[in-house]
GNAT family N-acetyltransferase
Amino acid sequence: MVTLKGEHIYLRALEPEDLDFVFKIENDTSLWELSDTQAPYSRFLIKQYLKNAQQDIFEAKQLRLAICTMDNNTIGLIDVFDFNIKNKRAGIGIIIQDESNRQKGYGKEALELLVNYCFKTLHLHQVYANISKHNKASLKLFESNGFNKIGLKRDWSFDGEKFTDEYILQRIND
């Protein structure tokens, strides 16, 4: 896969060396709400996932890329999921792992690179994101990249104590 480069970050395919980074993200319980995770992942499962992560997006229906700074520091992950070639659409998700790397424009640049890849390389007509009503930073990020709120899924997620609403945002390739 071609590396997708921006001014401050680049996106690259996952490598076996990303095991510890992916393990840390997947097992960070503070992030589980973002991915509907309900149980920890073992190193073995993540190692198997990384072994198969090189599958073609047309076969796997998903693509996960590492977000890296220009000094080769891996700071996050960005995903294309529910890739639907017939209807030319896919979902997008993003996480910047360490809070100290948030609010620096890395997420915005990564999202711009991935949306451009989806539209120009994969020839998708639309991309979408599902974001909790309470995740103001992600809502701002996606809206600043041309995504529009198109619906609110009421009581969509249960956190063990209460239900929360989730927006669906969409960007259509004009």
Remarks:
- The longest helix spans residues 106-120.
